[in-house]
TrEMBL record:
It is a multi-pass membrane protein. It comes from Flavobacterium arundinis. Residues 265-448 form the Bacterial sugar transferase domain. Belongs to the bacterial sugar transferase family. One of its GO terms (molecular function) is undecaprenyl-phosphate glucose phosphotransferase activity. The chain crosses the membrane at residues 12-33, 45-64, 76-94, 106-126, 270-292. InterPro entries: Bact_transf, EPS_sugar_tfrase, Undecaprenyl-P_gluc_Ptfrase. Its EC number is 2.7.8.31. The keyword Transferase applies. NCBIfam families: EPS_sugtrans, WcaJ_sugtrans. This is Undecaprenyl-phosphate glucose phosphotransferase. Pfam families: Bac_transf (PF02397), CoA_binding_3 (PF13727).
Amino acid sequence: MILSDKRRYSKYLRPISIFFDILVITFTFQFFFREHGLNYLHFGAYQIACWAIISYFSGFYGVYRYTPPIKIMTKLMGQGVLFLLVVIAFFPFAKHTVFSGQAIAAYLTTVFIIIGVFKFLMFYYLKRYRVVTGSNYRTAIIIGYTPQAIRLKEVFETRPDYGYRFVGFFSDKKSNPEVIGKTADIKDYILQNNIDEIYCSLNEISNLQIKELVEFADAYKKVIKFIPDTDGIFSKNLKMDYYEVFPVLSLRKTALHDPFAQMIKRMFDIVFSLLVVILLLSWLTPILALLIKLESKGPVFFKQSRPGLDEKEFFCYKFRSMQINERTEQSVVKNDPRITRIGKFIRKTSIDEMPQFFNVLKGEMSVVGPRPHLWSQNNLYSNRIKKYMVRLYVRPGITGLAQVRGFRGEISTNEDMIFRIKYDVFYIENWSLLLDLKIIVQTVVNIFMGDEKAY
């Protein structure tokens, strides 16, 4: 099963906005602090780091097609106040810099005028572009034919600048020309017509149907939102959005959906991998290459096709630990006769995985994440285990939460894979940089303490 991904230019808008803002804050301050002895490199790096942290926690880039302008203005003001404080906080530690309130005021005023104008121009241009060209739209269906569902349909039709195309209702309880099918028809209809978003009236479907729809949306990367027919369904896993004055509930996205979280994780991956390559692999690789070559014929490195991010193929690198054989798609079992003597050692200590830091630098893997499975395992379990495909929403990792919890190595039963998937999904839904660091530390501890499943 291949995950579909309808390509739109909208996925580039947030990265473009982030890049533009960083360029503005990086180059603008140089015009206002020329005569104040400011270290441009230190101040520039400090600004970018602070801007990233403030933006991440304030949700500064959480602007969507339905976001009201007043909320954008509020975000700008909040970001401006916090950024002002961190800019001022820099100067007491810059001993050779002359503090100037006038220069800071002129600098920040210029920055936020430029950023604000750019943000509003892009926001309004895209709204106008959707109306005129019909581009960048999202197709939507509504489950349920209730007064609230009808009101939402009217919002879609009266606000074309939101960029939604309403297709029709699905309902088991009501009959109407606008009702195009029953709830049993929803999944096939969504896949056949490439529907993007599902809006669900909670009065019309059961809890079991909701659960199945959420799992379906996870598997096929569809957006599912809920129409609050009652005030009894709020929970910490739901967030409220407003289309004009109409409330819609959405499942909260994971931290790894956030561009800043992705940027932070990627920066960490690059820095950590470079340190490993320079400090360890630079001298360890020649030694292992000699030992591997002395024991058996064949290449030093072994590469194998694996499913990566969004199920795209990549080649996973390892130090070769087995005799050359044709059973490359067969997973390793305990006391596998194919494994060489040096192979037993490097597999036991996980040294064989270290070339995957090059995969990380290439952007194919992450230091921490769900381990990439064989294609045979991927094809076998993708339809057997619920939420299996969720693990393909992120880059695969050299190590992961499932591995440090004891679910590594051979998969002999369905239960082995089920527990591995549970830990992978938990990691994705609860990611933090601290969690990555804990998993890395635990991985190192397991290497020295020994792991009975490392063979």
